[in-house]
Amino acid sequence: MDYFRDTNLKMPEIIPFESAYIAFDPYPSFKGSATHITEVYNTIKNSYENCLLMTLAGTTALKNHHWYPENIEGNYLKRGMEFSRQAKNILLKEKSMQLVQYRDIWGGLAVSELKNIYQVFEANGFPSIELKERYAILPKSTIQKIAKLENICLNAADEIVCPSKVIANHIMRRAISSHKIHVIPNGTHLPEQPEEVPGLPEKFLLYFGALQPWQGVNTAIKAMKYLDDLNDLTLVICSSHKEKLSKQLKKFIANSGLEEKIVWFHQLRKTQLQYIIQKALISVAPLTECERNLEQGCSPLKIYESMACRTAIIASDIPVAKEILTHEEHALLIKPDR
């Protein structure tokens, strides 16, 4: 049971793990999911000292109590199923396991058939909804099969936690008992000392986070066209992705003649991002009017982190934003895609 993947670490005697946290996400990483993983994993460790963290490999190799799979290749679905298979094999060997919390169906499928383990589904999103936004050519039959896997995990879970009422309502529409669904909103911890970032414009609007279509980054970019009269105003985009994943957006910016109005940063440290948020005139959360945001729901960390930095916010006027913000009190809420 080689949980300790760092070659510089001497192998200790096998630890009997009492709990596990599973996430089909790279960890550590610059994504918002990494913040969730850190907070939840540390919370579980407060009750179960020996907690096994099971994730995809991240930017660095962690040493203690961290397992990630080997030789995962292929498309999203093949990688998800292989992750589940390998994680299940690990869990089968853990005779002291009492609790497993997972944040996606690939972790859920690894534990759904295991007996005498308390299962907590941390439901942040559902691939049957999000994959349709990413891959328009996915067959309807594939989406239906994924939805069935999601329902297996929802039914097998002893408890379900989610960060917004919209997500909770979606789960209840799947005929899941409301008694085991708990809404725990997101929050944030600011670094003690922000880290100065050179190259910032003097006056700027800010978008930070991921670049999926439902985030509405296109809308923020298009808005800059209507601000041409403000020559000294710039849009800063702080992407949690590698630079190569911004290629299409940068092409769109070039075709729109907005290259001089947009400044990019990629995969910043938390301390750097905090500095930029605090310097911004306005932080924008231009979530689009789509199934992922309206039917499934979310709880944007960018809103919480902007509030914590006392930065003004403009966000889309949709239920997931209105759970957090009141129009003209905490933010300006604007019709989506405007």
General description of the model:
This protein has 338 residues and is α/β, with parallel strands linked by helices. It is built from twelve helices and 13 strands. The chain has helices at 32-47, 76-92, 105-111, 127-134, 140-156, 165-172, 217-223, 247-255, 270-279, 291-296, 301-308, 319-322, and strands spanning 19-27, 51-57, 66-67, 99-102, 118-122, 159-162, 181-183, 203-209, 233-239, 262-266, 282-285, 312-316, 332-334. Helix 7 links the parallel strand 8 (203-209) and strand 9 (233-239). Helix 2 runs parallel beside helix 3 and helix 4 (127-134) runs antiparallel to helix 5. The longest helix has 17 residues, at 76-92. It is globular, with a radius of gyration of 21 Å.
